[in-house]
Amino acid sequence: xxxxxxxxxxxxxxxxxxxxxxxxxxxxxxxxxxxxxxxxxxxxxxxxxxxxxxxxxxxxxxxxxxxxxxxxxxxxxxxxxxxxxxxxxxxxxxxxxxxxxxxxxxxxxxxxxxxxxxxxxxxxxxxxxxxxxxxxxxxxxxxxxxxxxxxxxxxxxxxxxxxxxxxxxxxxxxxxxxxxxxxxxxxxxxxxxxxxxxxxxxxxxxxxxxxxxxxxxxxxxxxxxxxxxxxxxxxxxxxxxxxxxxxxxxxxxxxxxxxxxxxxxxxxxxxxxxxxxxxxxxxxxxxxxxxxxxxxxxxxxxxxxxxxxxxxxxxxxxxxxxxxxxx
Length: 327
What we know:
Elements: E1 5-14, H1 29-33, H2 39-57, E2 68-83, E3 86-102, E4 107-119, H3 120-134, H4 148-158, H5 161-166, E5 172-176, E6 183-190, E7 194-199, H6 204-210, E8 215-220, E9 228-232, H7 236-239, H8 242-259, H9 261-264, E10 273-274, H10 292-311, H11 315-326
Parallel strand pairs: 4-5
Antiparallel strand pairs: 1-2, 2-3, 3-4, 5-9, 6-7, 6-10, 7-8, 8-9
Helix pairs in contact: 2-8, 3-10, 4-11
């Protein structure tokens, strides 16, 4: 395996004083919230939503629903590329790390790393490469090696000494369900994760994350409106404590209520057979300003930035490294 790449980690607190760093992808969900006139109120309301949801799920020995609060840390991962003696860094991955504060015992408990997932290379794959591949084609298709490089970069990071030094457990990434799939309840129920669902077929996102080494299961937590997609290594139900799982649910469900209210802030909960819809009018809006249109436009700009500053300059090195890593 090639050792061309190493990783460096920087982190910043996500609180009501958060300002996005220059290296943060502008489409990153929490960066979107932290801009404009409403930025501080947005951040305050988001954190309040997360804490309220955490306490609702961690209801045992918590009569006033105020025992816990969640602290969030934005973890930015830079990839160091040694190109013939000239070291260059590229902002490869950005995730969230949760910490749980127990105000009864005055303990700060480590939560889960992952949660939200941002990647410039994913922007390139979906917003540049996939579009170019399908230009002028009568039928949509996906390149055979689609997601290979991105998957190998992610696996290399999770297996790196840098990751092991900073985090004690593998990441869990929590995403929205796909609005072009149908989900069926399986009959399995977990006390924290809730009702399990299975999709009628695999989505492109699911296949992309599989190349990152991640399995996926879909659960709708108690009093949620829709299932969430949990991408993980190992055994999701046994490798993490209830409080760790609740930290992920409370954080990512709150974000999804802001980003996709049609699905996650719907006024009626998903039934036994469920197809999400972004056209669902029967939903409530949060008091948090989020620019979804801007996010879509920026994804293309960031994909082109990646092509110009990472894919093209280092293409030969990246292809050689990825082939060695896969071997």
